Every structure is written in structure tokens, then in C-alpha cells.
Amino acid sequence: MVSRKSAKQCKLFVLDTNVLMHDPTSLFRFEEHDIYLPMMTLEELDNNKKGVSEVARNARQASRFLDEIVSGAKNGIEDGISLKGHRGGSASGKLFLQTEAISGELPANFPIGKADNQILAVVMHLHRQQNKRKVILVSKDINMRIKARALDLAAEDYFNDKVLEDTDLLYTGTRELAADFWDRHSKDMKSWQDAGHTMYRLTGPLSSNLFINELVYQEDPKPFYALVKEQSGDTMVLQTLKDYSHLKNSVWGITARNREQNFALNLLMNKDIDFVSLLGQAGTGKTLLTLAAALQQTLDQKLYSEIIVTRVTVPVGEDIGFLPGTELEKMSPWMGALEDNLDVLNKTDEEAGEWGRAATQDLIRSRIKIKALNFMRGRTFLNKFLIIDEAQNLTPKQMKTLITRAGPGTKVVCLGNIAQIDTPYLTEGSSGLTYVVDRFKGWPHNGHVTLMRGERSRLADYASEAL
Questions:
Q1: Which DSSP string corresponds to 274-292?
Q2: 3-state SS, residue 454
Q3: What top-level branch of life does the organism fall under (predicted)?
Q4: What is the pTM of this model?
């Protein structure tokens, strides 16, 4: 880890530029430890401050933080500037800036003109000078850390942005009930009917481990699927789910093919849940289920005025350059998945005939708006069904910007697969999708499901497992 409260001695962390450009608040994340900024880090910050990209914005924000810290310094810069009192007072260490020329002796095969090597030279100098305390380089660049270790210097990744160290611990939204669940929790059980659902008030040890809107199930001896409606201490209220695998409960002609899809449709069709996140590998039905639920509630039930679809435009291979046309035309190549799913949904109404399906398709397209992420700031969506596709490529900050667009009556659905991240410096642990799944769990108006089984085709399923 980057910082540990239990450390007996204050450490000195030397920050690489990419750490500040990734998270400007990293200046205040090292608790009681000191941080050191080489002059080359400041130079690289200056070189990257121009533009409207996320990196440029972060470089400017980091410079503003540094200006705030330095201008409020009471002592000389050489003695270190206290970080106490800045950004809520979470940091109690000092900030040191390079104030003298350092000519560290790197091996002859290290080009001295390279920025990374100049930072390594500073780390080596500090390592020799401050031999009584640990000097550690913090960098997001793997090669930089490898070079540091080759020189016998301590180097670490920046971990503070990671929501979880191990994504296997990520909240799945579902929980299997033990075989003895009813024996341990049915004492003083109360049961009643409410709006077509059976409700159970139970008392027992499992209650303290559950979250509101977590989905629980038991397959044997008799299938039981429920949602945690209330939870307090050792008491919980379970609400049985609607069976969307039955044709009579189909959503825009779509029925659930497995348990997790049934769970997902229960969350998507629940008007009391404002935020839904669906994780799953390719072919698990995330987009199809969400679009079916969106069309049903927008066109049939009139709960929402329109559907808005957005996604991050990060290419998988080489970029094909600038795209011509309007915002809609520019976004069209990125919306192939949407088009494929609309074709499937439009074919579910077999009785309508070719003319009827064409009319339905025109109606659907008139109610679906495709928006680019670039123009979201400052907007407010009222009574909209907002779908954020490929959400694993969003940073936590971008995710916050998007979700805070939601006005009264708006439902936000995030879809993604954290195993397919294309954004540089984002990992499974630091993705915006992982961030919202972890932070929203337990909120009464949030629902989450991790879809397990692929339903695309036997070829796609085998490819997901074998390749």
C-alpha cells in the first residue's frame, strides 16, 4: 500500500507526474508521510496543462493545488511545507520541492536527457541522502517501476484510487441462502401479501450481512427468489420477485433465460429503484434486457419521456480518424450494439407484419436519443431513462459527472464488463463502474446484479471460456 498508519517512521514518497495527472488530490492522500516533487515532475505538469482532455484538466488542477500549498507556506520551501489544514486536514506530512540541481549517478546505459531517468536520478540521490528513512517512488508507469527496482530503489503503484484490491470481492448483488436458512430465521416469522408480492419478516444472524435491494435465492428443495426490502439489526423483510421467465410477464417480447436475468429485469422494472448497475461478460444480455425494460416503461407505461443512450468513445484498435456529420452521425459507429439489440426487439412482434414493424421501429427511434459524453456537463435530465453503456471505461470522476445529471423521475442504468477496460491507467479496481457498484450498495434506491451466464450463442459462450 502507498501509506500505512502503522508505519513507525515517516516515509518520503517521490511522485511521478502520471500520479498527479491521474489524481490531483494524490497530494493529500499520503496521511502522515512526506511527499517530494522533482523539478522534472513540475516541468511535465506544465507541458501537459493545455487542452480539454481529462489529463490536461487534472494537470491544471494539480498546479492549482500546488499554488495553494506553496502560497500558504510560512517557512522556507527547503524545510518542507506542511500539508495540514489543506483539503480537510487528512494529510499531516510535508511537501518538499526540488530546490537544487541534483546530478545523480545513473548507469551509463540510462540516457540522462529522458524525463523518467532524471526523476530516477533524484530518487537515487534522496535514497543516499536520507538513509535513515525509506524513500519510495510512486508511479502509474510499470516500466518506470521496473527501472527503479533494477536500480535497487523502492517503487510502488498509486493505490489510493483503487476501490478494491481484489475485484473478486466486488459486491455481486446476489446471495445464495444456506440450506438451513429457514430453520435459523423462521422463528416469529410474519408473512403477508403486498401488491402481488409475498412479504416475509424474518429474524436471524444473516440479516446483519445483507444490503437493501440485495437479491437472495435458494434453488433446493423449492426455488425461492426474493429481494431484501428492509434490513435493520437482526431483522429483515424479504419480498418475492416477479417471474420474468414466464411468457405472460415478458418485457417487450423478451423473457429472462436464467436466474440473474430474472433478477436484472426485477430491478430494471422497479420504479422505486433509481440506479441500476449490471456487470457481466459479453453475451449475458445486459443491453438487451435494459433496452427492453426502457421501451416497455417509456412507450407502454409512459413512466419516462424518452431513452438516452451514451457511452465512452474509446476504440478497441486503431482510431479511424475524425467522423463527419452531426453529433448523432458521429456517435452512430459507436452504437452498433444498440442497433443490433433494437433489431432483436423489433422482431419480437411477429403478428404486426412488415409494415407494422417498420412503424414500430420509427416510433422507437424517435424516442431514443444518442448523446456523446463530451456535452453532458451542466445538463439536467427530467423523467428520462439514461443508459450508460461500456461504463467500465469511465473514471470515477466522469461517472460522478454523468450520474449527477439525473433530475426528478430519471432512472440511470450502468452497463459494463470490468474485464474489458480500454482506457489508459484504468484498472478493474479503479474503474468508475467498480467505484459506483461499491459506493451505492445498501442505498434503498440502488440495485446491482452481476450476470454470470452468456446467452448469445454456444460459439460465443465457448469463445468466452476457451480464448
A1: -EEEEEE-TTSSHHHHHHH
A2: coil
A3: Bacteria
A4: 0.73
